[in-house]
Amino acid sequence: MSYDRAIDFECPHIVVDEALFVNGDRQTVRPLRPISSFTSVKVRLNGAIECPSEGVYLPPQTIGTRKGPFNVQQGVNNVFQVSVNNGPVQTATLPSSRLMPTVELTDRLNRQLQGVRFFLSDRGTVGIQSAYEGKAATLFIYSGSSLASTLGMVVNREYRGKDLVSGWTLVTDVNTLADRPTRLVVFDLPLRSTNDYIEVSYATLREECRRCGGSGYEHDWRFNQRGDVEIVQDELLLVQEVQKILYTERGTNPFHN
Predict the structure, then answer these.
(1) What's the rounded Cα separation, in Å, for the pair 188 and 196?
(2) pLDDT in tens for each of the 257 residues of the chain?
(3) From CA 198, how far away is CA 168, in angstroms rounded?
(4) What is the DSSP string of the chain?
(5) What residues contact residue 233 under an 8 Å CB cut-off, 6+ apart?
(6) Between 20 and 30 A from 46 (CA), which of 67, 77, 82, 139?
(7) Pairing of strands 138-141, 157-160
(8) What residues have CB less than 8 Å from 229, skipping those under 6 apart?
């Protein structure tokens, strides 16, 4: 059965990962094409950080250095005391246990304490993370936390969250055409460096689309969800062969002179 790679598709007019540098104010990014839909905009910082319009904020957290299972003894190392956002001291008490599995330990602590989450880190140790994000969020582990030393956590220290990237909005440039206005990505606060680069994906207007050149169709390979190249056969194959003949300048195809 004859088939060929499909090359004729309706263009979605999507610009993917357009690499841009921030302006001198460290807040403004100018896409190269008009943005036709706010919901289509995706922003990524320095090739690594996905930046939703509300910004990126990290919670305070700390990760222990010791791996489980853990020996827990009443009156020795079975108490964990923590304060969230300078609130009242919360105390969790574990029963005595020899070689308590890490999953059981984190589950018992999570059931007793509010506003925090204990988890198993990639290193196989126990971590604690606040339920609140941003630099205003705090987490304090008290010296009365005898269990903290068993987990390898530092006590009598306040951990703080971070404002990693501020939020952003789309602002229309009034100096552009009304039927195809340039929309700028403007961050609420300046980025840390003018060397930061932004990758923006967005839907644009057909007339400004570089994928199809305004024709509405693009001629390139596409892949399905299994990773296989899309193919055409039967009548669609015949139509595509005719299109190739009509679109191709004679002599430019070395396989079909």
Answers:
(1) 15
(2) 688 888 888 999 999 999 999 999 999 999 999 999 899 999 999 999 999 999 999 999 999 999 989 999 998 999 999 999 999 999 999 999 999 999 999 999 999 999 999 999 998 999 999 999 999 999 999 999 999 999 999 999 999 999 999 999 999 998 888 888 899 999 999 998 888 899 999 999 999 999 888 989 888 888 888 999 999 999 999 998 898 888 888 888 888 77
(3) 12
(4) --EEE---EE---EEEEEEEE--TTSSEE--SS----GGG-EEEETTTEEE-TT-EEE--EEEEEEES-EEE-TTTS-EEEEEETT---EEEE---EEEE-HHHHHHHHHHH-SSEEEEE-TTSEEEEEES--STT-EEEE-TT-HHHHHHTPPPSEEEE-EEEE--EEEEE-TTS-TTS--EEEEESS--S-TT-EEEEEEE--GGG-TTTTTSSEE-S--B-TTSPBPEEEHHHHHHHHHHHHHHSPTT--TT--
(5) 1, 2, 3, 4
(6) 139
(7) antiparallel
(8) 5, 6, 221, 222, 223
